[in-house]
Amino acid sequence: MRQLLLLAVLAVSAVGSVWPAPAFAADTPPAAGDGAHKPNRLATTSSPYLLQHAHNPVDWFPWGEAALEKARMENKLLIISVGYS
């Protein structure tokens, strides 16, 4: 039974390692007319990572007192993105 489970895990791992990943152009804002979104407040930051998300249809806040204060005032939890690779 363990050998069968190990074989299944290896097969899934092998397929996952050769499966083509979707091509994302996160660092390129959508062209006008392509459903482009108005830039959010990340458009004024200097961080290359945050600038990649400046045209997302999400009201993102960079980490700082403004984000913390808004969460306090609205009694909401924070969703913190620590990046990805």
What does this protein structure show overall?
- With 85 residues, the chain is mainly α.
- The protein has a domain of 50 residues.
- 36% of the residues lie in helices and 0% in strands.
- It is built from 3 helices and no strands.
- It is globular, with a radius of gyration of 20 Å.
- The two termini are 35 Å apart.
- About 15% of the residues have low confidence.
Q: Judging from the principal axes of the Cα atoms, what is the shape?
A: globular
Count of helical regions: 3
E-strand count: 0
Cα gyration radius (Å)? 20 Å
Major beta sheet summary = none
Quick structural summary:
The chain is mostly helical.
Describe this protein with a few key phrases.
85 residues, mainly alpha, 3 helices, 36% helix
Blueprint of the fold:
Blueprint: H1 2-18, H2 48-51, H3 65-74
